[in-house]
Specification:
InterPro entries: Cu-oxidase_C, Cu-oxidase_fam, Cu_oxidase_CS, Cu_oxidase_Cu_BS, Cupredoxin, CuRO_3_LCC
Organism: Lactuca saligna
Strand order of the largest sheet: 4-3-8-13-10-11
Protein name: Plastocyanin-like domain-containing protein
Strand content: 25-35%
Number of strands: 15
Order of helices and strands: EEHEEEHEEEEEEEEEHE
Family: Belongs to the multicopper oxidase family.
Oligomer: single chain
GO molecular function, one term: oxidoreductase activity
Length: 280
């Protein structure tokens, strides 16, 4: 096996060495003494990386039908910038770097959202995370106006009905700098239905979805200046974090929370906190 790192971040150093290994089964025999080295894609070949990702197939039957959904969330994922007093920061044009989903840079509160939701503590979070971007523009343009750089700061979540099927379309943008974003959802695995470069076309792109045997994962990479679509079934009641797995982007605000409501049966309800659980 041979693997090369994949990176599209301009000007950021990374380990670009190639990893090789020999995988030998227990009953293997007649292993060749020399193995020709394969021709690997270039480290920033996004087409090769995503063609491979989407070529993976689910090995078993689908866990739920993929021919429909109950709710769609279309969310931009962006690197942003906040102005600094006296232009004193080290970001672009003396700003401070930030990140967002649907132009909301998530603000963490002193009371955690799980506790606030379970005990009905008001004022900790809002429930108005938008279903679509608040402003539509050419998200992947190479020349975006600076007025688009500054997001809103808020703690907004999305409340989801139990057992509903949710489609999330992540749309990368070229604000500040286009980059791939590994988006991770706690509490669920999801099916990766499709991806593409450029702006998501709601009329044509869904026609190319794989609804038969798509990859089944809990993390998906949004391609640089592109989009990816996932679906999951909300059968796990609770408060679940959705975030970029680049930790710096997470700390900058590229996250939100999905609150899945209780179902009707006892086993479909969020569990109470353990008796000896320490406080956050």
């Amino acid at each position: 096996m041979a693997a090369r790192a994949y990176s599209t971040a301009f000007g950021i150093p990374f380990d670009n060495t190639t990893t090789t290994a020999i995988l030998e089964y227990d009953n293997g025999s007649n292993l060749p003494t020399t193995i020709p080295f394969p021709s690997l894609p270039f480290y920033n070949d996004s087409s090769a990386a995503f063609d491979f990702l989407i070529s993976l197939k689910s090995p078993g039957p689908l866990l739920f039908p993929l021919n429909k959904y109950d709710m769609q969330i279309y969310s931009t994922v962006s690197v942003n910038a906040f102005p600094c007093q006296n232009n004193s920061c080290a970001g672009p044009n003396d700003t401070r770097l930030a990140a967002s989903m649907n132009n909301i840079s998530f603000v963490s509160q002193f009371i955690d959202i799980l506790e606030a939701y379970y005990y009905n503590i008001n004022g900790v979070f809002g429930t108005r995370f938008p279903s679509v971007p608040p402003l539509f523009f050419n998200f992947t343009s190479t020349n975006l106006p600076s007025i688009l750089l500054t997001p809103k700061r808020a703690t907004e979540v999305r409340v989801i009905e139990y057992n509903s099927i949710i489609e999330v379309v992540f749309q990368g943008t070229n604000l500040v700098a286009g980059i791939d974003h590994p988006m991770h959802l706690h509490g669920f695995d999801f099916y990766i239905l499709g991806w593409g470069f450029g702006n998501f076309d709601k009329n044509n792109d869904p026609l190319k979805y794989n609804l038969v045997d798509p990859p089944h994962r809990n993390t998906v990479i949004v391609p640089i200046n592109g989009w990816v679509a996932i679906r999951f079934k909300a059968h796990n009641p609770g408060v679940w974090f959705m975030h970029c797995h680049l930790e710096r982007h997470l700390t900058w605000g590229m996250e939100t929370v999905f609150i899945v409501k209780n179902g009707k049966e006892a086993q479909e309800r969020i569990l109470p906190p353990p008796q000896h659980m320490p406080r956050c």
